[in-house]
Write a structure and sequence with these properties.
Rossmann fold; 16 helices; alpha/beta; five-stranded mixed β-sheet; 3 domains; seven-stranded mixed β-sheet; globular
Length: 468
């Protein structure tokens, strides 16, 4: 497969949308470029006593709003180009869904399976120390989060390191995606996948688009394939199958499988846990190459792994009518044009995988406010609803059993409020994209998403008075 410059791909999409905006060329150039790039290298003492030099990056793309926000990934494929591209996408993503952060991204060039847990802890803590030294982390400066190859454990090490060095009342807000005991939030783990589900749900309920694709509205009965059954792919698939969609194809590190009759997601997960592979599951057939998943017959294709998976080399063989970009940059600019000409609906990554940063925003707010969502109002709401139920019983003469009363009087806790906020944000952002697409008579949502983001960031720069 050809090597694609990821940051260049992002900027191609930017330039395409920028042509529709009102901003001066200088403002557009300022929005497009990364403000700061920090390249880190430090020694690691391995468990066997040897010393290895570790490389890492932290890129802050836009300071139009602070703090900047973006995940940290651990991958042997991490490089400066990728980190810059992902930071830029974070800026546009945050603007698109009205989360008040600038975009950032971090990466450490390691394959985590080659390191012990103690080595990973030392890498994470040293990387954090390097960020602290140069003021590249802090509740009001730059707030990392999990990404590919990292999770709550690494975020816990980061916040612990930060608190040991910085005397800051809001120190737990220096990173999101943390364990609950360290200031995390309920619903963060499944947030990105849940957001993917909400985005797909909005798309397939848009009658005009479904009519154009020759599909009925709604999720139920639609077939889908997913590349990557990690955190995002799994939770997206879980929510889709829960609404009646049919999982027919999966691609993972060990290979890819396809079964037009459908696969049970939980049985597949259990099978892989037991055997270490998805290959041989049920009546599925093994595909020759992992990338062949994109050529299988389905209604919805969900790339949920890494960038540049659908390219000019394979786009003309993609059969899905809907491409739901759960990963960052899975479709190259030339592939986008091929799919668009074929009439496919592409739900862009800048919108679709924003669930993680939306819920990270809620976590950040929780940490700087020092109050758990639902703590002050849950019991009040529950008691108020109970009074209404009792009044209804008095008027109607009907008595509700305990189970019914529990459902009718349920007060919203943290997980309920987080999920409600995520759903509302995804719905509103999709409506904005559709409105812009229609106003400009565009043929794709990606350009509409970028126009929306550029307009919000450019307006912010103008209001800040940066430009004479």
């Amino acid at each position: 497969m050809a090597k694609y410059n990821f940051f260049e791909q992002v900027n191609k999409n930017f330039d395409r949308a920028a042509a529709y905006t009102r901003f001066d060329k200088g403002i557009l150039e300022q929005i497009k470029m990364c403000n700061t790039v920090y390249h880190i290298s430090f020694p690691l003492r391995r468990d066997d006593g040897s010393v290895e030099v570790i490389e890492g990056w932290r890129v802050e793309h836009s300071h139009h709003k602070l703090p900047t926000k973006g995940g940290i990934r651990f991958s042997h494929k991490v490089d400066e180009d990728e980190t810059m591209a992902l930071a830029a996408l974070m800026s546009y993503k945050c603007a698109l869904v009205d989360v008040p952060f600038g975009g950032a991204k971090g990466g450490v060039k390691i394959s985590r399976r080659n390191y012990s847990e103690s080595e990973l802890e030392r890498i994470t803590r040293r990387y954090t120390f390097e960020l602290i030294k140069k003021e590249f982390i802090g509740p009001g400066i730059d707030v990392p989060a999990p990404d590919y190859g990292t999770g709550a454990q690494e975020m816990g090490w980061i916040v612990d390191t930060y608190r040991q060095i910085k005397d800051d009342l809001n120190s737990i807000a220096c990173v999101t995606g943390k364990p609950l005991a360290q200031g995390g939030i309920r619903g963060r783990t499944e947030a990105t996948g849940r957001g993917v589900y909400f985005g797909i749900r909005e798309a397939v309920n848009h009658k005009a688009d479904m009519d154009a694709l020759g599909l009925p509205i709604g999720i139920e009965g639609k077939t889908f394939c997913v590349q990557g059954l990690g955190n995002v792919g799994y939770h997206a698939s879980k929510n889709l199958t829960g609404d009646g969609a049919i999982l027919v194809g999966v691609s993972e590190l060990e290979g890819a499988i396809y079964d037009p009759k459908g696969m049970d997601l939980e049985e597949l997960i259990a099978f892989r846990k037991e055997t270490g592979s998805i290959i041989g599951f049920g009546t599925s057939q093994e595909l020759e190459k992992n990338i062949d998943i994109f050529e299988q017959q389905c209604d919805i294709m969900i790339p949920a792994a890494l960038e540049s998976q659908i390219t000019g080399e394979n786009a003309d063989r993609v059969k899905a009518k809907i491409i739901a970009e759960a990963a960052n940059g899975p479709t190259t600019a030339d592939a986008h044009d091929i799919l668009k000409e074929r009439g496919a609906l592409i739900i862009p990554d800048t919108y679709l995988n924003a669930g993680g940063v939306i819920v990270s925003y809620f976590e950040w707010l929780k940490d700087i406010q020092h109050v758990r969502y639902g703590r002050m109002n849950k019991r009040f709401d529950q008691n108020s609803l109970l009074k209404i139920v009792r009044e209804l019983e008095s008027i109607s003469g009907k008595k509700y059993d305990e189970e019914a009363i529990a459902k009718l009087t349920h007060g919203a806790g943290e997980a309920d409020l987080v999920d409600s906020g995520l759903e509302e944000t995804m719905i509103t952002a999709y409506e904005q994209m559709i409105e812009i697409r229609n106003n400009y008579e565009l043929r794709d949502l990606r350009t509409a998403a970028f126009i929306n983001a550029i307009d919000k960031i450019g307006t912010m720069y103008e209001q800040m008075g940066i430009f004479p």
